[in-house]
Write a structure and sequence with these properties.
- It is a single chain.
- The chain is mainly α and about 200 residues long.
- It has one domain.
- Helices cover about 45% and strands about 10% of the residues.
- It has a two-stranded antiparallel ribbon with strand order 1-2.
- A hairpin with a 5-residue loop joins β1 and β2.
- α1 packs antiparallel against α2.
Amino acid sequence: MSKKKGYKITKRLFDIFMSSLILIVTFPIILIVCICIRVESKGNPFYKQERVGLNGKKINIYKLRSMYLDAEAGGPKWADKDDDRITCVGKIIRKTRIDELPQLINVLNGDMSLIGPRPEREVFINEFLKENENFNDRLQVLPGLSGYAQVNGGYDITHHEKFELDMYYINNMSLLLDIKIIFKTILVVFTGSGAR
């Protein structure tokens, strides 16, 4: 078995084990947040959105809803730092990344990994491609719940910087790097660094 294939198998097994464990541990938190979301604003506390995954495959990712209903009635819009579409509960769960927890289902389904480039929406990818024709090179690996770019700048970096960080990860993928990103992700969750 090649080193690369061994890493892929280990990574997948790790994804399944850790996603299952985190879902079990955080289920009470998800339940409480769902109640808080419903108390503050009407509508489903869960939110489904189409993103672009491995090799350009369309996937639906799941999140806890952090915005009011019909937040994109005027069309897709990148989240601003002080976005008035975000609810009070939404501000908290986005800062702590709790809104991302339902994507553990995507990891279990094999559409995502715990670590990898964050999946983007097609409408934004098309915009990024105008500035960087190589932006889709990020799609050669499974997208991640967290990633190298997320723990090294998050929302506060340019799309080009994000691309460079994602490509660094893709070109240097290893179990050790994944573990380092996981520990940095935990720090980001507790400090709220780079949240929007």
